[in-house]
Task: inverse folding
């Protein structure tokens, strides 16, 4: 029996007829006609470059939370937040945190670093050659930079980091990438730079464009320390009376809970000592057309809180490797573009604004869930809002 081949058209693989052929093939396996997958509101041709063998859409519900008041360098004012999720209570929980933070005067957000990497490895006959090659690269950085930047209008090679092990020199080529997340951009730029390098240095025996040292779409300690994407901090001070009235907890209870959960995170080896930042990050990623696999890195978080002398709680979270874009990838798809417009993050020069908004949303979620756990409301909330029955 011949194997089944998914229909494909060299002329136009996003035309109605070829899409229908693929749908009919899938329906044969399904055993009944599609009722939802094949219903969409946009021209499939807009998906070119985003997906292959298109048959339809996965409709994820979008809920609205907020408004949340943000005092950023790029995001300023109140924002309504679209959250795409199928998890009950998530929107309600984030909405509760946003209400409290806004009543407390808002969230201060700051982007402190911004870079995207590709991490080639160079292999030599011995460790001494590898060590000397690092010196050679430093001396020829301007030529390497020129080669890399010849491939892009907006990408800029900022610097190169060096990490030697045995006869291998692992490098991290760090770039700024404008409004794009930039993984593909820096991949092409680094490939051209490496070609120039091997043409001008005879000591390189072998090389690979990626050594797994950029830890693309994987959580890692090096990216939590050195930054991949945006490094952004959100912070707020919430008065004790507000915590008691709105969140049904207190500065004392939240501070004590934070100490206990941090030890639990340390024992388990997590990349985040907070409660659930991946929830807010993922819901915003789906709504705004981000590469959802980047949640693996973007979920890293460093949470800190302290009680203040005036019966308040200072709460902050740093996201050390938040990978977001307002240009390229899925951000141009119709639904996702509408959500970016809702946030005021469509158009050029808006990527840091989006990063600040995401960080503020994450802080709201941390406050809400920690409050629910410390006040023993967590299970009852899920029973009321999160059960599909």
Result:
């Amino acid at each position: 029996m011949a194997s089944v081949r998914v229909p494909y058209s060299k002329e136009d693989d996003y035309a109605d007829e070829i899409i229908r052929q693929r749908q009919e093939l899938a329906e044969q396996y399904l055993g009944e006609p599609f009722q939802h997958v094949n219903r969409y509101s946009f021209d499939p041709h807009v998906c070119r470059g985003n997906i292959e063998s298109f048959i339809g859409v996965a409709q994820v519900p979008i809920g609205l939370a907020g408004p949340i008041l943000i005092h950023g360098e790029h995001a300023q004012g109140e924002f309504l937040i679209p959250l795409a999720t199928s998890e009950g209570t998530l929107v309600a929980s984030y909405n509760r945190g946003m209400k409290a933070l806004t009543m407390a005067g808002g969230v201060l957000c700051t982007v402190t670093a911004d870079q995207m990497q590709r991490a080639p490895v160079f292999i030599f006959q011995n460790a001494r050659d590898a060590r000397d090659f690092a010196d050679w690269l430093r001396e020829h950085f301007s030529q390497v930079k020129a080669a890399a930047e010849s491939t892009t209008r907006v990408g800029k090679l900022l610097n190169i980091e060096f990490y030697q092990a045995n006869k291998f020199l692992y490098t991290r080529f760090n770039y700024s990438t404008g409004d794009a997340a930039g993984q593909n951009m820096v991949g092409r730029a680094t490939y051209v730079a490496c070609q120039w390098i091997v043409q001008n240095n005879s000591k390189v025996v072998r090389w690979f464009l990626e050594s797994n040292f950029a830890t693309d779409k994987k959580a890692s300690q090096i990216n939590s320390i050195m930054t991949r994407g945006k490094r952004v901090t959100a912070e707020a001070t919430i008065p004790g009376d507000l915590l008691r009235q709105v969140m049904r907890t207190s500065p004392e209870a939240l501070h004590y809970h934070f100490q206990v959960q941090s030890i639990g995170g340390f024992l388990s080896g997590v990349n985040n000592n907070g409660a659930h930042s991946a929830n807010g990050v993922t819901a915003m990623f789906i709504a705004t057309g981000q590469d959802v696999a980047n949640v693996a890195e973007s979920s890293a978080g460093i949470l800190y809180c302290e009680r203040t002398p005036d019966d308040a709680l200072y709460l902050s979270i740093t996201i050390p490797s938040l990978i977001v874009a307002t240009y390229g990838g899925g951000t141009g798809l119709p639904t996702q573009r509408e959500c970016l417009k809702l946030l005021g993050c469509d158009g050029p020069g808006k990527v840091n604004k989006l990063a600040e908004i995401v960080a503020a949303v994450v802080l709201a979620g941390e406050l809400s869930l920690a409050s629910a756990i410390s006040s023993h409301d967590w299970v009852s909330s899920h029973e009321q809002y999160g059960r599909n029955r």
Observations:
- The chain has three domains: 12-59, 62-113+229-385, 120-208.
- The longest strand covers residues 107-118.
- Strands lie at 62-72, 76-84, 107-118, 121-123, 156-165, 168-176, 206-208, 229-239, 302-308, 312-322.
- The first helix runs from residue 16 to 30.
